[in-house]
Amino acid sequence: MAGNLWEYPSVVSRIDDAQLVGYGVEATDGGIGKVDEHSDEVGAAYLVVDTGPWILGKRVLLPAGTVTEIDLESYTIRVDRTREEIRNAPEFDPDKHPGDPEFHRLIAGYYGGPAI
């Protein structure tokens, strides 16, 4: 992957301050869930995605660099990972994010980029 894992790629069109909560998330092979929260912090941007019902799903953190498109008309965000990659990602831990550097190393290592 080219670019910074924690920044939206330059090819992704965004409107500043767009509220992405509730947008559907499409992996390369189909839908995977909805955005539960997001951050646009420079150099530390991410999405937290709820991958499904509480028994079968979990919340995962997707660095902004995984985003390939944000479609403001269809409320859809496309990412460059498969559903399996996202399902197997470390579970989002709100107690360790954003302040725990070890959690960031874990996420960055999983997605193949540098920690924040």
From TrEMBL:
Q: Name one GO biological process term.
A: photosynthesis, light reaction
Instruction: Please give the superkingdom of this protein's source.
Output: Bacteria
Which residues are in coiled coils? none
Q: Where are its TM segments located?
A: none
Q: What GO terms fall under cellular component here?
A: plasma membrane light-harvesting complex
Q: Under which name does UniProt file this protein?
A: PRC domain containing protein
Q: What is the lineage of its organism?
A: Bacteria, Bacillati, Actinomycetota, Actinomycetes, Kitasatosporales
